[in-house]
Amino acid sequence: MESLAIITSGGDAPGMNAAIRAIVLSCHAKGIKCIGFYHGYNGLIEDECLTLTPEMVRPILQYGGTILKSARCPQMHTDDGVKNVAKTLKRHKVDSLVVIGGDGSFRGMMALQSYWSGRLIGVPATIDNDLACTDSTIGFSTAVSTATHAIDKIRDTANAFERVFIVEVMGRHSGHIAFNVGLATAAESILSFENCPSSSLEQVKLSLIEQIQTQQKNNHTSFVIVLAENLWPGGAQGLKQTLNDTANIESAVCVLGYIQRGGSPCPEDRILATELGIEAVEAAYSESGVMIGKEQGKLIRRCIIAATEQKKPVDQAIHSVYQTLT
Amino acid sequence: MESLAIITSGGDAPGMNAAIRAIVLSCHAKGIKCIGFYHGYNGLIEDECLTLTPEMVRPILQYGGTILKSARCPQMHTDDGVKNVAKTLKRHKVDSLVVIGGDGSFRGMMALQSYWSGRLIGVPATIDNDLACTDSTIGFSTAVSTATHAIDKIRDTANAFERVFIVEVMGRHSGHIAFNVGLATAAESILSFENCPSSSLEQVKLSLIEQIQTQQKNNHTSFVIVLAENLWPGGAQGLKQTLNDTANIESAVCVLGYIQRGGSPCPEDRILATELGIEAVEAAYSESGVMIGKEQGKLIRRCIIAATEQKKPVDQAIHSVYQTLT
Amino acid sequence: MESLAIITSGGDAPGMNAAIRAIVLSCHAKGIKCIGFYHGYNGLIEDECLTLTPEMVRPILQYGGTILKSARCPQMHTDDGVKNVAKTLKRHKVDSLVVIGGDGSFRGMMALQSYWSGRLIGVPATIDNDLACTDSTIGFSTAVSTATHAIDKIRDTANAFERVFIVEVMGRHSGHIAFNVGLATAAESILSFENCPSSSLEQVKLSLIEQIQTQQKNNHTSFVIVLAENLWPGGAQGLKQTLNDTANIESAVCVLGYIQRGGSPCPEDRILATELGIEAVEAAYSESGVMIGKEQGKLIRRCIIAATEQKKPVDQAIHSVYQTLT
Amino acid sequence: MESLAIITSGGDAPGMNAAIRAIVLSCHAKGIKCIGFYHGYNGLIEDECLTLTPEMVRPILQYGGTILKSARCPQMHTDDGVKNVAKTLKRHKVDSLVVIGGDGSFRGMMALQSYWSGRLIGVPATIDNDLACTDSTIGFSTAVSTATHAIDKIRDTANAFERVFIVEVMGRHSGHIAFNVGLATAAESILSFENCPSSSLEQVKLSLIEQIQTQQKNNHTSFVIVLAENLWPGGAQGLKQTLNDTANIESAVCVLGYIQRGGSPCPEDRILATELGIEAVEAAYSESGVMIGKEQGKLIRRCIIAATEQKKPVDQAIHSVYQTLT
């Protein structure tokens, strides 16, 4: 292998820079040229790149965001877009392409396999942690930490006012963030896809109202609901309205939003990104169409199709802990 | 003085606990009994209280929220409500009442003066920093710090995606938080009451659009707008819509919300709260109807009317710094 | 089971309060009386205790330290001490005792087995992470996080001055903290028991000096050495002296010390402590002499002897990552 | 003015980068060329520099350290060194030199006045806050914040073990950090130059011991001593030894050290650095030998001699607060 390219693609996640650093240093140690393309697949289409050196990546381990920028790339849904990516890779004589991103980015890899014969390696980075074949994705731990500390602050006000708060957290269509943050902040209620199937929202509403009213009868205290985004019709505001309309329960809303994507990665994400990055270069010698993951403490390589086809469920143990304590 | 009562009233602010601690320790040193009433004026109406001891307040300096709880109290807008507060104070033989809160809480003090002859002392605590007669209110510095660190995280994503972000910060009807946070985060634009009078929003819109388009032409980069709450019609979402409809500019929205109210107070707020708390007890021997403030490094006592009648403007210097750099 | 007692023992670790909370809430749900004894085994000797209620533990999840206090207890090395503990447990009709602590605390449990027939359950809590039979101990993740953020700050100065820094981290006689923190901060060198056996210190010294000199020749830059406590003769100051005496290399020293023990637990420790606490109550119905652990995502119960007899080695993968990148 | 040069000199302080950014952007707006020299005065002696552009400084506001590096420069104590600095400045046709640093750096400015006729402007940046003619120096607020949060963590352990802790903080020969951190952390004792003249250490020791013993008699609780560096013979370890030898009081030691110098600047330091930086460029048109300061909310220009000749005392109010509460 003489030349390896990297992109960061899709939603950014804390630790992407740490993965870039590990890949660049690893390539350097092995005498492989390392090219970074900007803006995800867009940079491959428009041939926007630079050669990455150890000096460039030395200081970036601790920074959020990505020095290679990221972007969605609608052109990857067209044959022409994919062909242009392949052309750029050939022009630069790239042997292997490492894609740091989530499942959308990995689907781009699969499309590219038809037009490019180089080796394709995926490194899972998304705060949502919804990819199979890895216990944790890069950025998840930091997002949980950021949301947890935010809710710690909200709890101060909730306690001072003995008030109901609805806090909406990210996670797209999975509840990894919601459940972990909910447990870490002693949320009185966690509402997520896993325990609130859309068919049961009416039921969920009633039991939530009962839970709030029971608690308010027993003692003055705060009540924090951690709500997964995309779950409730109308989001956090919709739920607030529902509580008010149905049971005259007042509540305050906080949508944590983009703060969950940024910030200096926590040690877990720095180390995970470093391990996955090194292993990606290792794998790029001999494999293609694989995602690097870490399961039960061991680095693994899994077919990219397996990693994207199924969503990783929220740990059953987390569910039962939540049920025990509420 | 034999007996002093405390309430925390209105929106909670980080450092309220530090003020309570200072007052209690100061009373203890002087042999004054210190009574805390819960839930702001409500606790005075319903006679919900406890005697505060040094042991209770020793560990609370560093905690957000308020151990005395807080609340709005609509009954204080009625004569009956105010009379009931006076009754409770007389029943407990309270000599002085210290109210820790913002301008709404201080207006309650003024109403109370007609029905109660004890001494009334105000301690300014609100994250909005909109009270006159003090350079800074308790909680302001922490709120600025929390919002600043949140936008630092958002900047990571903004940079990675070279995107426009609209971040709405608190401040009710004044721009202290907006301007300080804007400068501290190198916001490309700060939109607040002071530089965007409601009559000029059309003009503001056009020059904002021009600024964004100029920057986007010159270089790929992020653009962060810090927006004061209650300023733009429809808030941050309204501004997003406006930018999109008028100039086809896409943007992302983040409403920081309640995280700005909570959290462990920063050292500035801990020290300010401690100084104001001690001085409040000192003042309670001889004065009434005054707010304790700190201006230009000196503790002062000002008539509560002066403190609430006028709003403290945002420092002119801050304006001009912002203009120099953008 | 009608009555369960808890102590926190040995060095405190962030997350101990979260474990207490989980145990108390879990007992409450099952109708078991829960008694907390203060100051570790000392409180059992001197019968210093209180009945723990859900109200007491609701707010403590996020706080460092332990509401039950902790202490070393030399009397547990004597038969009389152990007998007195047994007496107190009998007097209170305790069915099960849960000990939250490290290996010293667990050895106390083993001694107690001879004099008390109740059930004994261990919950592993120590920042050192040196216990076998669990991937992580309560407090370890927070300690790594605190040390990492501290070194991030030190790196600023190290970079500004292009200087060599020796940063000593905790860990008693194992390198879990040193290796994880070293990787998370991109330390140029990690010196710990695992890669620096005492017989090889002379060799380590020479290769460290060579590494520093090579780097200083090639470019101006900082050099951070993460040093495990108890490793180098004279500690960090000893190593500084050695570098100066042997090779005229100047360096600055920072001993992170006790800040690593405290602080609000990170989400990982809050969740781990909650899971282990719940499982401890579950186990206390039927087992004794076991430690609750979590390995590869699963809660396990292991004989306390196995957990204390062997030390958990630092993950081999971590070693090899470090070697790849330096 | 066509050309302005900047150095950062002496101990680094959080906010130096914010000052550099403000100066560069301000120069850019005025059409002035801005040259940065590396490593303080050393870069001026060895002509190590680069032209600073807005693009370079846009992202640095929030970062600790200094992109221009810093260093002590012993050669500035010799005529030859100073002459070489003057030569470099002439060679680059520099009209004004802005020195960001502390009193040592400002003394270098004074020496330079004899050999160079350009304009010299000082911007006060040191965590010690010991410069006169400004209420606060750049970096002080961040250092207080870092030390405060560190002691918050130590307090957890101190409480858990009901133990005496001696925490040594920076400040060189003044107690600004010690007093502010001590108040912000509710330290039971603050030992600094201002309240412990070297002639009275014996007396201080006795009253400290009495204070500890009284508290230990009255209740189980922690006792935190904040100790200024360079005060006690043998530092924190010396004081620990003294307490042990004289009164058999056990204590634990923590020297916070270099973590106080680094880290992302807090909002106060970011804003102060920005204001001072802008004003420095303004002043550089017409003045020389002045330091820019901010007193009582107003930007001022003071003769550099006045700023360095006297040390700014710790606010008397802070003293008296401390006395009231302990």
Automatic annotation (TrEMBL), chains A, B, C, D:
Keywords: ATP-binding, Cytoplasm, Glycolysis, Kinase, Magnesium, Metal-binding, Nucleotide-binding, Transferase. GO terms for biological process: canonical glycolysis; fructose 1,6-bisphosphate metabolic process; fructose 6-phosphate metabolic process. Residues 4-283 form the Phosphofructokinase domain. It is an enzyme of class 2 (transferase). Its cofactor is Mg(2+). It is found in: Cytoplasm. InterPro entries: ATP_PFK, ATP_PFK_prok-type, Phosphofructokinase_dom, PKF_sf. Its EC number is 2.7.1.11. Pathway: Carbohydrate degradation; glycolysis; D-glyceraldehyde 3-phosphate and glycerone phosphate from D-glucose: step 3/4. It catalyses: beta-D-fructose 6-phosphate + ATP = beta-D-fructose 1,6-bisphosphate + ADP + H(+). It comes from the Bacteria. GO terms for molecular function: 6-phosphofructokinase activity; AMP binding; ATP binding; fructose-6-phosphate binding; identical protein binding; metal ion binding; monosaccharide binding. Transmembrane segments: none annotated. One of its GO terms (cellular component) is 6-phosphofructokinase complex. Belongs to the phosphofructokinase type A (PFKA) family. PANTHER family: ATP-DEPENDENT 6-PHOSPHOFRUCTOKINASE, PHOSPHOFRUCTOKINASE. This is 6-phosphofructokinase. It comes from Pseudoalteromonas luteoviolacea DSM 6061.
